[in-house]
């Protein structure tokens, strides 16, 4: 460590770090208001109590607020299996009774269920991998949408105002509008992730980049700003720490590079090492890895591969054929 300007040990305090320190109180307020507004819409008292005591907000929303950028959505995780499953069942029930619940193609009425496979909570859509309100949705898992036109950075107070505006939009607040195996997207910029649950450190074992590992906890309104995450944000540097979805992470780097972030070759090598452990000729594995990444194109890819397997009576697909289909679709 280098001494600061007063000769004390530790990192020098930069202008950006001072801004982050000033924002922490506001960020806590924004997240508290957002979660409280969501909790008020949960009609089942038992489910609401579980959510109030076990919700973790983490990921890109806190990073965006620290950088003074617009928040795309708020990712909510849960400390316990009981909470994650209860919320999945609650919102799947609401979705199934919605008059607008359709398949992605907007044609057939949909039937969604929750399955618990040895602790892994899965949202199952009959004959489809995803379900949405109407014919389209803005859902993207891990790969979030860029702020429109990369507009000039906004201060956190502006972000708070935007959140309030979203909450005052027409229609039922925080209604389920999109479901996939791993998550439930609600209106008003909230996404409930059911794929992982546990304490924050457990959840972050599945996160890819260090800068998104700050978190806020509903039970004590504590905002944890991790030094490694803050340093990555200050330097706008992608530090890969491992993920169950390394392909998503590789594709996700495009977004950050377009925003002026940096990544070294070693980080790509770490991602490639994890990808090498995957059998991507297994379409189930490939589909799991591609959940939510450029959804429309990859849905078409998976559909084409499954048709090919059915037509040829095989369980896997030759990689050469996969690459040919990719070139055709993209």
Description:
The chain has 330 residues and is of the alpha+beta class. It has a domain at 15-236. It contains twelve helices and eleven strands. A nine-stranded mixed β-sheet has the order 3-6-7-8-9-2-1-10-11. A two-stranded antiparallel ribbon has the order 4-5. Strand 4 (112-117) and strand 5 form a beta hairpin.
Features of the shown structure:
single chain, 330 residues, alpha+beta, two-stranded antiparallel ribbon, 11 strands, globular, disordered N terminus
Helix content: 40-55%
Shape by Cα distribution: globular
Q: How does the major sheet shape up?
A: 9 strands, mixed
Question: Quick one: how many beta strands?
Answer: 11
How many helical stretches?
Answer: 12
Order of helices and strands: HHEHEHEEEEHEEEHEEHHHHHH
Unreliably modeled segments = 1-13, 135-169
Q: Please report the distance between the alpha carbons of the first and last residues.
A: 48 Å
| Radius of gyration from CA coordinates | 21 Å
Q: Which secondary-structure class do the elements indicate?
A: alpha+beta
Binned strand content: 15-25%
Task: Look at the structure and give the mean pLDDT.
Answer: 79
Across the major sheet, the strand order is 3-6-7-8-9-2-1-10-11
């Amino acid at each position: 460590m280098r001494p600061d300007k007063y000769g004390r040990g530790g990192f020098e305090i930069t202008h950006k770090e001072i801004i982050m320190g000033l924002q922490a109180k506001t960020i806590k307020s924004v997240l508290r208001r957002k979660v409280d507004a969501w909790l008020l819409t949960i009609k089942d008292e038992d489910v609401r109590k579980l959510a109030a005591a076990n919700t973790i907000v983490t990921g890109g929303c806190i990073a965006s607020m620290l950088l003074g950028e617009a928040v795309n959505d708020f990712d909510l995780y849960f400390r316990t299996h009981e909470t994650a499953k209860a919320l999945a069942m609650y919102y799947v029930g609401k979705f199934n009774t919605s008059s607008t619940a359709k398949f992605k193609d907007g044609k057939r009425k949909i039937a969604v269920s929750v399955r618990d496979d040895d602790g892994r909570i899965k949202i199952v859509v009959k004959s489809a991998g995803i379900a949405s309100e109407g014919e389209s949705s803005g859902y993207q898992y891990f790969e979030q949408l860029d702020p429109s036109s990369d507009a000039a950075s906004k201060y956190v107070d502006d972000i708070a105002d935007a959140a309030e505006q979203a909450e005052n939009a027409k229609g039922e607040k925080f209604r389920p509008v999109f479901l996939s195996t791993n998550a439930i997207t609600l209106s008003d910029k909230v996404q409930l992730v059911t794929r992982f649950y546990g304490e924050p450190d457990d959840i972050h074992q599945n996160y890819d980049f260090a800068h998104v590992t700050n978190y806020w906890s509903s039970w004590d309104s504590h905002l944890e700003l991790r030094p490694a995450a803050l340093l990555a944000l200050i330097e706008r540097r992608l530090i890969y720490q491992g993920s169950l979805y390394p392909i998503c992470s590789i594709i996700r780097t495009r977004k950050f590079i377009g925003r002026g972030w940096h990544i070294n070759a070693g980080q790509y090598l770490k991602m490639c090492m994890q990808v090498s452990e995957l059998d991507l000729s297994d379409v189930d594995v490939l589909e799991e890895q591609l959940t939510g990444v450029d959804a429309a194109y990859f849905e078409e890819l998976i559909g084409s591969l499954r048709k090919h397997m059915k037509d040829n009576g095989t369980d896997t697909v030759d990689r050469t054929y996969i690459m040919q289909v990719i070139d055709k679709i993209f």
